[in-house]
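cache lookup: miss for this entity combination. No prior model stored, computing from scratch. Input as submitted by user K.M.:
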Amino acid sequence: MKVKIPEATIMRMSVYSRFLADLDRKDIIMISSFDIAERVGVSPVQVRKDFSLFGEFGKRGVGYNVKELHWQILKILSLDASWSVALVGLGNLGSALSSYKGFHERGLIITSIFDNNPGKIGTFINNVEILPMDKLVEVVKYNQTQIGIISVPSEYAQEIANLLVEGGVQAILNFAPVVLNLPREIKLRNVDVTVNLEILTFNSVKIFGEIKRPHNEPLFFA
Amino acid sequence: MKVKIPEATIMRMSVYSRFLADLDRKDIIMISSFDIAERVGVSPVQVRKDFSLFGEFGKRGVGYNVKELHWQILKILSLDASWSVALVGLGNLGSALSSYKGFHERGLIITSIFDNNPGKIGTFINNVEILPMDKLVEVVKYNQTQIGIISVPSEYAQEIANLLVEGGVQAILNFAPVVLNLPREIKLRNVDVTVNLEILTFNSVKIFGEIKRPHNEPLFFA
DNA sequence: TAGATTGTTAATCGATTAACAATC
DNA sequence: TAGATTGTTAATCGATTAACAATC
C-alpha cells in the first residue's frame, strides 16, 4: 500500500493549494476537478489522479469542498505547521526572498538571516536581525532550522551549504548556479535562472527553425 | 530521423555547458563522460545519451574535446548568437536579475527594463534606461525582443504578459506565482520559489515519518 | 593488441492519459 | 432515474538505465 509520489505531483499539489487558498478567500464552497484543471493549466484527470495518490477528498457527482480539500493538501505538504527557515546571503536576490510575503502565509518562517556585509549586520528585516556568517551554525542549531536558503555568490555556496548541514538543516534550497555536494540524507533543490532562460532559447529556435533574428541597438539607450 | 528531445535533457545540456565553460577557462583540453557525470551529479550514461540525441561529439577510447563540445552545446542551445531580453519589474528580484552577470556571458542581453516607479524611471542599469510600462510594447517591438522576464507582483503579471506578447516576444520567463494565459505559440516557463520550498517540506517530512519538530523563538531577536 | 571510452539498442522504470466503473 | 463527477485500472507514452558493440 506504499505509493511512490512523483515529484511532479508534489509540485502540482503546491500549485493547487495556492489556487484553493484563493478560492477560499473568495468564499467559494465547492469546485470540480474540471475547474481546477482549467485554472491551473493541467487536465482534469491529472488533478484527480494527483489527489487520488493521497486519498479520496471529493464527492462523486458533486466535486470537492474547497476548505476541506485545501486543508488536506496543506496537511500533505506539511504546511499545517510552521517551518524554521534560514536565509543566507542578502544581496538583491536574498532581499527579494526576505521580503516575500508568500512564505510566511504558508508557514515558512524565516527565523534567521546571515550576510557578511558589515553595513547590513545588526540591521533588521521583519524583526529578524541580520547576523554575520560566523554565527550561522550556532543560530541555525538553536532555532532548530529545518531549511536553509542559499543566495550567496556561487563561489561561497558549497561552504555555506556545509555550515547549514553542520547546523542540522534537513533541506537546502540553492539559488547559486553550482552543483552542491551534500550528504545523501539532505534534501536539495536548485533554482537556476539561467537554465530556465536557456530552455526558452532552445524552444524558441525550434519554433522558427534555424532562423534567428538579430536584435537592433536598443531604442532608448545611454 | 526526427528525435524528440526531453526537456530534462535541455536542462542538463545547459548545466553541462556551464561546466565546460569552466573547464575551458582552466585550459583543460579533454574530458570523459565519467568526469562530467561526477561533477554534474548525473550518471555517465545519462551524459552520453543526452549528447547522442544531437550528434557524435566524442572520440571512443579518448573522450570529448572540451572546446569543441562546449561550442557544440552552445550551438544546440542557440547561445552562439545573442538574444534580446526585456526585464519587466525592478523590485528586489528584478534588480537581482538585472545585475546578474551570467546572462550577458551567455548571450542573453537585457535590452530594455521597465518599471512603474517614478523614482526609478529614467535611471540606468548597465547602460539600459529604465522606462515606464507604457513604453513597453513600442520598445520591445523596436528591439525585436525575443524573451520577456516578468518580475512584477502577481496581480499585474497577466497584464504585462499580454503587453509582451503584443510586443512580439516568443518566450516568457515568469517569476510571479500565477498561472498565465498565453497564446499557444508563446513559450512559457515559470520559476516559482514557493513551490520549490514546499517540495522540500514534503520531502523532509517523508524522511522523518510523521515527526515534526516545532521551532523555538529565534536566538537573536528584536 | 589491450584498455578505455563512446554511442546505440533493448529493457526497465516512471508518469500521463484513456476508459470506465462507482456513486452522489 | 438521469446527469454529473469522482476514483481506479489498464494502456500508452516518455525518460532513464543496462548491456554491449564499435572504435580510438
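stored under new cache key. Chain A touches chain B through 87 residues (CB under 8 Å).
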